[in-house]
Write a structure and sequence with these properties.
Elements lengths: L3 H19 L5 H9 L3 H7 L3 H24 L5 H18 L1 H6 L4 H31 L9 H17 L8 H22 L8 H10 L1
Length: 213
């Protein structure tokens, strides 16, 4: 007998496949039910409407992306590098993820309805990864004194906007990293100004300079 969790996972896998192949066309729910080999009433018991289906699919697929990116980012011990690695990694992976793109970029009619719902989902999944990185950066005094909660929320807003909004056609992972680092530089300058501290070059500049000299 198939368990409830297994059946739910099967439906979500079918939904991801159908959305990748044909998008949110007529008979979407019927097609997903057929692909998952369940009846429509069974599907509706797990997902009463399309919104809940899309929310659940985004949560499952984003969770996979967050887990993979966080594991790779652990390769560095520097909080700043790890922070950039996580932000850029999440954006790149999510933008290249077929099922997520089927819900978001490829079908504006879905994204228009889902956009207000994306931020809480990204916050729920990304906060456990981002919070320790921000805390590690602030604690030794390497970063300006900032409210950790505010930093986390704005980081999630940045990730969400970069996932959902169009990027320049010539955008690459390198230019994306540079953009995220620039945002950190500006945020650091503002924080230091508000704290009455003199502006300074980011720590990584001195590190890179000594490495190249």
């Amino acid at each position: 007998m198939v368990g409830r969790a297994d059946l739910r996972e099967r439906i979500l896998e079918a939904a991801a496949q159908v959305l990748r192949e044909r998008g949110p066309r007529p008979r979407l729910i019927t097609t997903i039910a057929e692909r998952a080999q369940v009846s429509r009433p069974t599907l509706y018991r797990h997902f009463p409407d399309r919104t809940e289906l899309y929310d659940s699919l985004m949560r499952v697929e984003l969770s996979r992306v967050v887990t993979e990116v966080a594991a790779r980012a652990k390769a560095t011990r520097d909080p700043l590098e790890e922070y950039v690695d996580v932000v850029v990694g999440l954006v790149v992976e999510a933008r290249e993820h077929p099922a997520l793109q089927a819900i978001l970029a490829r079908h504006p009619e879905i994204m228009a309805a889902q956009l207000p719902r994306i931020l809480p989902i990204v916050l729920e999944l990304a906060e456990p990864v981002i919070a320790p990185i921000v805390q590690a950066g602030v604690a030794p005094g390497r970063w300006p004194a900032i409210d950790t909660r505010v930093a986390i929320i704005w980081t999630v807003r940045l990730i969400t906007s970069l996932i959902t909004m169009p990027l320049p056609e010539d955008a690459t992972e390198a230019t994306l990293r540079a953009s995220v680092e620039s945002v950190l530089d500006v945020a650091g300058a503002i924080a230091r100004t508000q704290a009455g501290q003199p502006a300074r070059q980011p720590e990584r500049d001195s590190v890179e300079g000594s490495a190249t000299s």
